[in-house]
Specification:
Length: 421
């Protein structure tokens, strides 16, 4: 078997295996029905009335297709069917809940599609460009003041804790310089992986970076969700398959298809280019943060939800657990949607302001009156100053008007059946 076919088969199996693992680790995201304490926000209004049976069937088909990708060889009819089932079922699940568009989900879906559409050598090229795109835009999202002051310091503290180093006495400038190494390291990896002669150096640097992230967010550091650790382990294995064993140029040329390019190849290349360009729109708020690969980034908007303390005392238990301490002199308590996501879904919350406001409405509106709720919205920070514009919305009517005037995508939750209330 030629190396290109072998590596293609390996990346296919790796995608299938880690899809199954991450589906299990984040099972609450996929297998829990919409309830009053577990609302789901579809991307489009037609998904509001979709029965939960659609989710169950899609999860079953996705799991079956993932297992098939692990077990069957490339390029037979059975495997092509698995590629198609994987794509359709994963897409349906994503469309029925915006929260499901985790960064690893989009990456796995894109790579599976291009592998299923294209010839072996072209599929591997597209996968390599997808990975380079992820590293590049991830680094770009961290090149701002807010990252050095917040998420960068958080990752640094987690890493120092894991290796038992006390950095509490370091100066702010020195800590900011160390935090800057995260995006600079990603840019270095991109520049090394671009060229054959430096590919293996890039792979080694990527292993170092992902190992550092695993230490920082793992049990020895920040103790984040297991899914985050698995995604970083996947990158370590993936980069070996895609870049370390980069075949000789003459061998690759020998596998090129005829001059007449097939439609599948064209679609794979077009899809790769499209998702390499779309993240540019995130800078103007025309594209969501996670699909733009803004991971571990501080670029997302901030939404603070404040509820009157007396109203919060009447909350059901699942909402009381999300309430923080009362704010001094205001007699209001904050409600943490991030805590809800970690405890209910076992994964980070979808960072977009649109989703957070829609989720807050679905979770809290039934338990509060018009004048008992307040939203403080801070825009995406200025890249070099960290400054944010602030909007305050008081009451559900103001929120509803803001949602209707600002967003074209759906902001209403799926209907909850009487049995699930």
């Amino acid at each position: 078997m030629q190396p290109i076919f072998y590596r293609n088969r390996m990346i296919q199996r790796l995608l299938g295996c880690f899809t199954l693992l991450l589906l299990v680790v984040t099972h609450a995201l996929w297998g829990s029905p919409p309830t009053v304490d577990n609302p789901q926000i579809p991307w489009f209004a037609w998904g509001i009335d979709a029965p939960f049976g659609v989710d169950i069937c899609s999860v079953f088909l996705l799991s079956t297709a993932s297992l098939g990708l692990c077990l069957f060889s490339m390029r037979n009819r059975t495997t092509r069917a698995f590629f198609l089932i994987y794509t359709i079922s994963f897409s349906i699940l994503i469309l029925l809940d915006q929260h499901r568009l985790q960064p690893w989900v989009l990456q796995f879906l894109l790579m599976t599609i291009v592998l299923g559409l294209s010839k072996h050598h072209l599929g591997m090229k597209c996968c390599r460009w997808i990975v380079l795109t992820i590293y590049f835009y991830s680094a770009l999202s961290k090149l701002d003041t807010s990252f050095y002051e917040s998420h960068g310091q958080l990752l640094l503290d987690g890493l120092l804790k894991a290796v038992h180093i006390d950095g509490s006495f370091w100066s702010d400038n020195f800590r900011n310089l160390l935090a800057m190494l995260f995006p600079l390291g990603e840019l270095l990896i991109v520049s090394l992986l671009l060229f054959r002669r430096t590919c293996r150096c890039g792979v080694v640097f990527s292993w170092v970076m992902h190992s550092a992230i695993i230490l920082a967010v793992g049990p020895l550091g920040l103790n984040h969700e297991f899914g985050v650790l698995l995604w970083n382990v996947y990158f370590i294995l993936q980069n070996y398959i895609l870049f370390w064993a980069h075949q000789d140029k003459r061998e690759e040329e020998a596998t090129l298809p005829p001059s007449r390019i097939q439609i599948g190849n064209r679609l794979a290349v077009s899809l790769t280019i499209l998702f390499a360009v779309l993240p540019v729109l995130e800078n103007w708020g025309w594209y969501d943060h996670w699909p733009a690969w803004a991971v571990y980034s501080s670029r997302s908007e901030s939404v603070v939800i404040l509820v009157d303390q007396e109203a919060a005392e009447e909350f059901p238990n699942f909402l009381k657990e999300l309430c923080g301490r009362p704010i001094l002199f205001e007699e209001k308590v904050p409600v943490s949607l991030d805590r809800w996501s970690f405890e209910k879904r076992n994964c980070p919350i979808y960072p977009q302001m649109r989703y957070r406001l829609a989720l807050a409405k679905a979770l809290i509106q039934e338990w509060t009156s018009e004048d008992e709720i307040e939203f403080k919205i801070e825009s995406t920070p200025q890249r070099w100053t960290g400054e944010r514009e602030t909007i305050t919305l008081v009451g559900w009517s103001e929120l509803e008007r803001y949602l209707s005037a600002t967003f074209y995508l759906n902001t209403k939750a799926r209907r909850v059946s009487a049995d699930e209330r």
